[in-house]
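Dear Dr. H.,

I hope your travels went smoothly. While you were away I took the liberty of generating a structure for the chain from your last submission, since the lab meeting agenda had it listed for discussion. I wanted you to have the full record in hand beforehand rather than looking at slides cold. The sequence, exactly as received, is reproduced here:
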Amino acid sequence: MNHRLRTSAAAAALVLAATGLASVGQAEAQPADCPTLKSSEGWYGDNKARIDALIADHCQDRVTPWKKKPVAVFDWDNTVIKNDVGDATFYWLLRNDRIRPPRAGDWSTTSRYLTPEAATALADACPTGVRTLPTSTDTRCADELLSVYGSGATSGGKTAFAGHDHRRMEPQYAWLAQLLRGWTARQVESFAAAARTENLTAPQGATQQVGTARVTGWVRYYEQQRDLIGTLRRAGFDVWIVSASPEPVVDVWAKGVGIDPSHALGIRNTTEHGRLTAHLKGCGTVRDGEDEMITYIDGKRCWINQEILGVRGPAAERVQPASRRQVFAAGDSDTDISFLRDATALRLVLNRNKNELMCRAYENGDGRWLVNPMFIGPKGQKATPYPCATTGYTAGDGTAEPVRRPDGTVIPDQRDTVF
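The corresponding predicted structure, in token form, is as follows:
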């Protein structure tokens, strides 16, 4: 099956008609410099044509001073880039002895969700009385940190995190930000920049040694997403990045697609005397230091509403009126589902076989979902249908449930068709 289909003029015409532009000729009636995506390579079916039609539909807004800029929001890891910049930074920290031990060796102070078993395992594996942990040479300590962060379990198989709301918090993601305690944001940016250089120069498919493990050692920007972000910005869109990696890390990487740190959101630490603490900024009803919500599923919605749309207090946790929301959103995972559903025009999904996301995208109840294979190393077809009718949705308490439509009815299982 050919997944690098080029869009036909006929498909483009149908899409333009569906979006209120009755013909390709009408699209040409937009301002002469209204931009379009430069390449069709990697775009599936009519996805490029539909995105170009959306851009044309809003391009006029940039020459209409009284109109608010249309907002576009992108997830980062595996949406704009291949692989994960949080992982890349964590591996660099371990290889370069940049993680500070907790005060008095009490690992429970690093996360309110860390289990006693995990705190004990980390205390047993890692030394105390040092300024930074010697994880470049102490493989036992490095392995334990890597296990807790990467798998959410100790090296002995005990659950590492518990007690969190699964729709607002992922303690493993938050833990990376919390382990940056004691460094300044500028220092963290320097660590992320060093990791970025290594991962961009490493060949595709490269691995690296961390502790006794071999882990992913490369990252690439998707050129198609760099093109899309640049095209949206030239068309007058207000483009944002929202990631569940630490914000100083996201800031460093986002510059590579022309996004200024003022338009990049990530997990935010609180600070004391200019240095990061092991506590996190809050959103909506969650106050600073309560550590109960990050840029994750419903938390992404809250942070978008609060920081991009200017909604404060409890209202930031709720869906906003359509006139205030982002018109375009892009993501690759269940962690992105809430802000993708909030997008009013198009929702681009890179298929990584994530259950809830693919259930909703494939059902495509309102016709606004676009599914595309990953631009580098796309996954093959999922052998079995997505379990939408039984276990595709993860509730706040971690229970697996059916995926439901807004009216409460259950979405049937969906076959994987774009791969």
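Two observations you may find useful: The first strand starts at residue 71 and ends at 74. The chain is about 30% helix and 15% strand.

With kind regards,
E. W.
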